[in-house]
Specification:
- The longest helix has 18 residues.
- The chain has one domain: Spore Coat Polysaccharide Biosynthesis Protein SpsA, Chain A (Alpha-Beta Complex), CATH 3.90.550.
- It has 8 helices and 8 strands, in the order βαβαβαββαβαβααβα.
- Strands 3-2-1-4-7-6-8-5 form an 8-stranded mixed β-sheet, with helices on both faces.
- By secondary structure, the chain is of the alpha/beta class.
- It is about 35% helix and about 20% strand.
- The relative contact order is 0.18.
- The termini are far apart.
Length: about 250
Protein backbone atom coordinates (compact mmCIF):
# COMPACT_ATOMS: atom_id res chain seq x y z
CA UNK A 1 0.00 0.00 0.00
CA UNK A 2 1.42 3.36 -1.01
CA UNK A 3 1.43 6.37 1.29
CA UNK A 4 0.02 9.83 0.61
CA UNK A 5 1.49 11.83 -2.25
CA UNK A 6 3.99 14.34 -0.89
CA UNK A 7 2.79 17.93 -0.91
CA UNK A 8 4.46 19.97 -3.66
CA UNK A 9 2.28 23.10 -3.64
CA UNK A 10 0.29 25.02 -1.04
CA UNK A 11 -2.51 27.49 -1.80
CA UNK A 12 -4.04 29.71 0.88
CA UNK A 13 -7.34 31.57 0.59
CA UNK A 14 -8.23 34.48 2.86
CA UNK A 15 -11.75 35.88 2.29
CA UNK A 16 -12.54 39.36 3.57
CA UNK A 17 -15.58 41.59 3.86
CA UNK A 18 -14.89 45.07 5.28
CA UNK A 19 -11.96 43.99 7.44
CA UNK A 20 -9.81 47.13 7.34
CA UNK A 21 -9.35 46.94 11.13
CA UNK A 22 -7.80 43.48 10.96
CA UNK A 23 -6.60 42.51 7.48
CA UNK A 24 -3.21 44.22 7.74
CA UNK A 25 -2.22 42.24 10.82
CA UNK A 26 -3.64 39.06 9.26
CA UNK A 27 -1.53 39.52 6.12
CA UNK A 28 1.65 40.22 8.08
CA UNK A 29 1.17 36.90 9.89
CA UNK A 30 0.33 35.02 6.68
CA UNK A 31 3.43 36.38 4.94
CA UNK A 32 5.55 35.23 7.89
CA UNK A 33 4.03 31.75 7.60
CA UNK A 34 4.71 31.69 3.85
CA UNK A 35 8.31 32.80 4.47
CA UNK A 36 8.74 30.00 7.01
CA UNK A 37 7.35 27.47 4.51
CA UNK A 38 9.77 28.68 1.83
CA UNK A 39 12.64 28.35 4.30
CA UNK A 40 11.70 25.01 5.88
CA UNK A 41 10.23 23.32 2.78
CA UNK A 42 12.16 24.89 -0.12
CA UNK A 43 10.68 22.52 -2.71
CA UNK A 44 7.09 23.50 -1.90
CA UNK A 45 5.46 26.25 -3.96
CA UNK A 46 3.17 28.68 -2.11
CA UNK A 47 0.33 30.81 -3.50
CA UNK A 48 -1.94 33.09 -1.46
CA UNK A 49 -5.26 34.46 -2.71
CA UNK A 50 -7.01 37.29 -0.86
CA UNK A 51 -10.68 37.45 -1.87
CA UNK A 52 -12.23 40.85 -1.14
CA UNK A 53 -15.98 40.26 -1.13
CA UNK A 54 -18.08 43.43 -1.51
CA UNK A 55 -15.63 45.52 0.49
CA UNK A 56 -16.63 49.17 0.86
CA UNK A 57 -13.96 50.15 3.38
CA UNK A 58 -10.15 50.37 3.09
CA UNK A 59 -9.60 46.61 2.90
CA UNK A 60 -8.47 46.73 -0.75
CA UNK A 61 -6.02 49.56 -0.11
CA UNK A 62 -4.51 47.80 2.90
CA UNK A 63 -4.32 44.43 1.13
CA UNK A 64 -2.53 46.04 -1.82
CA UNK A 65 -0.04 47.75 0.49
CA UNK A 66 0.85 44.45 2.16
CA UNK A 67 1.04 42.27 -0.96
CA UNK A 68 2.42 44.59 -3.65
CA UNK A 69 5.62 43.21 -5.15
CA UNK A 70 5.14 39.74 -3.65
CA UNK A 71 4.27 37.42 -6.54
CA UNK A 72 3.14 34.72 -4.15
CA UNK A 73 0.05 36.83 -3.43
CA UNK A 74 -2.92 37.78 -5.58
CA UNK A 75 -5.83 39.98 -4.54
CA UNK A 76 -9.21 39.61 -6.25
CA UNK A 77 -12.43 41.58 -5.86
CA UNK A 78 -15.80 39.82 -5.98
CA UNK A 79 -19.38 40.68 -5.13
CA UNK A 80 -20.59 37.33 -3.80
CA UNK A 81 -21.58 38.40 -0.27
CA UNK A 82 -20.94 34.88 0.96
CA UNK A 83 -18.02 33.46 2.92
CA UNK A 84 -18.48 30.01 1.42
CA UNK A 85 -18.68 31.34 -2.13
CA UNK A 86 -15.62 33.54 -1.52
CA UNK A 87 -13.55 30.63 -0.21
CA UNK A 88 -14.65 28.50 -3.16
CA UNK A 89 -13.81 31.25 -5.65
CA UNK A 90 -10.36 31.64 -4.15
CA UNK A 91 -9.61 27.93 -4.29
CA UNK A 92 -10.76 27.69 -7.90
CA UNK A 93 -8.45 30.56 -8.79
CA UNK A 94 -5.56 28.96 -6.91
CA UNK A 95 -6.09 25.56 -8.50
CA UNK A 96 -6.23 27.16 -11.93
CA UNK A 97 -2.81 28.70 -11.35
CA UNK A 98 -1.48 25.32 -10.14
CA UNK A 99 -3.20 23.33 -12.87
CA UNK A 100 -0.05 21.48 -13.97
CA UNK A 101 0.31 19.77 -10.57
CA UNK A 102 -1.32 16.52 -9.42
CA UNK A 103 -4.15 17.62 -7.10
CA UNK A 104 -3.16 14.97 -4.54
CA UNK A 105 0.09 16.91 -4.11
CA UNK A 106 -1.61 20.28 -3.59
CA UNK A 107 -2.59 21.43 -0.11
CA UNK A 108 -5.35 24.01 0.29
CA UNK A 109 -5.50 26.09 3.46
CA UNK A 110 -7.90 28.81 4.51
CA UNK A 111 -8.03 31.39 7.25
CA UNK A 112 -9.91 34.63 7.83
CA UNK A 113 -8.96 38.28 7.46
CA UNK A 114 -9.58 38.90 11.17
CA UNK A 115 -7.23 36.10 12.23
CA UNK A 116 -3.51 35.76 12.96
CA UNK A 117 -1.85 32.49 11.98
CA UNK A 118 1.32 31.26 13.72
CA UNK A 119 4.64 31.32 11.89
CA UNK A 120 4.67 27.51 11.56
CA UNK A 121 1.07 27.37 10.30
CA UNK A 122 1.86 26.18 6.77
CA UNK A 123 4.95 24.15 7.61
CA UNK A 124 2.97 22.26 10.24
CA UNK A 125 0.15 21.51 7.83
CA UNK A 126 2.52 20.18 5.18
CA UNK A 127 4.17 17.90 7.75
CA UNK A 128 0.81 16.51 8.88
CA UNK A 129 -0.40 16.12 5.29
CA UNK A 130 2.75 14.20 4.37
CA UNK A 131 2.08 11.97 7.39
CA UNK A 132 -1.30 11.00 5.91
CA UNK A 133 -3.92 13.67 6.66
CA UNK A 134 -6.41 14.55 3.92
CA UNK A 135 -7.86 17.40 5.98
CA UNK A 136 -6.81 19.26 9.11
CA UNK A 137 -9.11 20.96 11.58
CA UNK A 138 -6.99 23.48 13.43
CA UNK A 139 -7.93 25.09 16.72
CA UNK A 140 -8.60 28.78 17.29
CA UNK A 141 -8.56 31.11 20.26
CA UNK A 142 -10.59 34.31 20.30
CA UNK A 143 -8.39 37.29 21.06
CA UNK A 144 -8.92 38.09 24.76
CA UNK A 145 -8.15 41.75 24.03
CA UNK A 146 -11.46 41.94 22.13
CA UNK A 147 -13.60 40.26 24.77
CA UNK A 148 -15.23 40.56 28.13
CA UNK A 149 -13.08 38.31 30.38
CA UNK A 150 -16.15 36.35 31.48
CA UNK A 151 -17.01 35.47 27.88
CA UNK A 152 -13.41 34.42 27.21
CA UNK A 153 -13.38 32.19 30.31
CA UNK A 154 -16.65 30.56 29.22
CA UNK A 155 -15.29 29.97 25.73
CA UNK A 156 -12.15 28.35 27.16
CA UNK A 157 -14.27 26.06 29.34
CA UNK A 158 -16.18 24.82 26.31
CA UNK A 159 -13.19 24.60 23.94
CA UNK A 160 -10.20 23.06 25.73
CA UNK A 161 -7.03 23.06 23.64
CA UNK A 162 -6.14 19.47 22.78
CA UNK A 163 -5.46 17.10 19.93
CA UNK A 164 -8.44 15.35 18.31
CA UNK A 165 -10.82 18.14 19.30
CA UNK A 166 -14.35 18.21 17.90
CA UNK A 167 -14.44 21.74 16.48
CA UNK A 168 -14.39 23.08 12.91
CA UNK A 169 -13.24 26.61 12.09
CA UNK A 170 -12.95 28.22 8.68
CA UNK A 171 -10.19 30.38 10.17
CA UNK A 172 -7.96 27.31 10.51
CA UNK A 173 -8.67 24.61 7.96
CA UNK A 174 -6.53 22.66 5.51
CA UNK A 175 -7.51 20.12 2.84
CA UNK A 176 -5.72 18.05 0.21
CA UNK A 177 -6.92 19.38 -3.14
CA UNK A 178 -7.91 15.95 -4.46
CA UNK A 179 -10.14 15.43 -1.40
CA UNK A 180 -11.57 18.95 -1.72
CA UNK A 181 -12.54 18.35 -5.34
CA UNK A 182 -13.99 14.92 -4.58
CA UNK A 183 -16.18 16.43 -1.83
CA UNK A 184 -17.50 19.13 -4.16
CA UNK A 185 -15.64 22.07 -2.64
CA UNK A 186 -17.09 24.74 -0.39
CA UNK A 187 -20.85 25.21 -0.66
CA UNK A 188 -21.92 28.78 -1.41
CA UNK A 189 -23.25 29.44 2.09
CA UNK A 190 -22.94 32.59 4.19
CA UNK A 191 -22.25 30.50 7.31
CA UNK A 192 -21.23 26.93 8.20
CA UNK A 193 -19.65 26.25 4.80
CA UNK A 194 -16.70 24.73 6.67
CA UNK A 195 -18.87 22.26 8.59
CA UNK A 196 -20.71 21.11 5.47
CA UNK A 197 -17.45 20.48 3.62
CA UNK A 198 -15.93 18.52 6.51
CA UNK A 199 -19.09 16.39 6.80
CA UNK A 200 -18.77 15.55 3.10
CA UNK A 201 -15.10 14.63 3.54
CA UNK A 202 -15.86 12.32 6.43
CA UNK A 203 -18.77 10.73 4.56
CA UNK A 204 -16.40 9.90 1.70
CA UNK A 205 -13.88 8.28 4.03
CA UNK A 206 -11.09 10.84 3.87
CA UNK A 207 -8.61 11.06 6.74
CA UNK A 208 -9.72 14.10 8.76
CA UNK A 209 -7.49 15.03 11.71
CA UNK A 210 -7.99 17.68 14.39
CA UNK A 211 -5.00 19.39 15.96
CA UNK A 212 -4.03 22.14 18.37
CA UNK A 213 -0.48 22.34 17.04
CA UNK A 214 -1.25 25.15 14.55
CA UNK A 215 -3.57 27.29 16.71
CA UNK A 216 -4.83 30.56 15.18
CA UNK A 217 -5.84 33.67 17.13
CA UNK A 218 -9.05 35.16 15.76
CA UNK A 219 -11.10 38.24 16.53
CA UNK A 220 -13.17 38.05 19.69
CA UNK A 221 -15.72 40.59 18.45
CA UNK A 222 -19.40 39.84 18.93
CA UNK A 223 -20.79 41.85 16.01
CA UNK A 224 -21.24 39.54 13.05
CA UNK A 225 -20.02 39.53 9.47
CA UNK A 226 -21.69 36.15 8.80
CA UNK A 227 -25.26 35.73 10.11
CA UNK A 228 -24.45 32.57 12.09
CA UNK A 229 -20.67 32.79 12.20
CA UNK A 230 -18.08 32.87 14.96
CA UNK A 231 -19.06 36.31 16.28
CA UNK A 232 -22.68 35.23 16.54
CA UNK A 233 -21.57 32.20 18.54
CA UNK A 234 -19.58 34.37 20.94
CA UNK A 235 -22.62 36.59 21.33
CA UNK A 236 -24.68 33.53 22.28
CA UNK A 237 -22.13 32.70 24.99
CA UNK A 238 -22.50 36.21 26.36
CA UNK A 239 -26.26 35.73 26.53
CA UNK A 240 -25.77 32.58 28.65
CA UNK A 241 -23.81 34.39 31.36
CA UNK A 242 -25.65 35.33 34.55
CA UNK A 243 -26.74 38.94 34.76
CA UNK A 244 -24.71 40.82 37.40
CA UNK A 245 -26.73 41.68 40.47
CA UNK A 246 -27.61 45.35 40.73
CA UNK A 247 -26.07 47.31 43.60
Amino acid sequence: MTGPLEIKSVAVVMPAHNEDQHIGKALVALKAAADALNRDCPGVEARMVVVLDHCTDRSAEIAAAHTSGDNRFSVVNVNLRSTGASRGFGFRAALESLRANDTAGIWLATTDADSVVPRHWLTGQVELANAGADALLGSVEPDPADMDPAIHRRWMELHPFREDHQHIYGANLGIRASAYISAGGFPGLRSHEDRVLVERLRHRGFAVSATDTIRVVTSGRTHSRAPEGFAAYLRSLAAELPTPASG
